[in-house]
Amino acid sequence: MAEARTRRRGGGGAARRAERTAVKIECAKFITRNIPNLEILNEEAMEIIEYNAETVLEEIGVNFVENPAALERWKEAGADVDGERVRIPRGLARELCKTAPSSFTQHARNPERNVEIGGKNMVLAPVYGPPFVRDADGGRRYATIEDFRNFVRLGYMSKWLHHSGGTVCEPTDVPVNKRHLDMLHAHMTLSDKPFMGSVTAPERAQDSVDMCGILFGKDFVQQNTVMTSLININSPMQFDDVMMGALEVFAANNQASIISPFIVGGAMAPVSVAGTLTQVLAEVLAGVAYSQLIRKGAPVIAGTFVSSIDMNSGAPTFGTPEAANVTYGAGQLFRRLGLPYRSAGSFNGSKLPDAQAAYETANSLNTGLLSGVNFMLHSAGWLEGGLVASFEKFVMDADQLGVLHGIAKGVEVDVNGQAMDAIREVGPGGHYLGCDHTQKNFKSAFWRSELLDYKPFETWEEEGARDTQALATEKVKKMLADYQEPALDPGIAEGLKDYIAEKKASMPDAFT
Question: If you ran DSSP here, which 8-state letter would residue 420 be given?
Answer without folding.
Answer: H
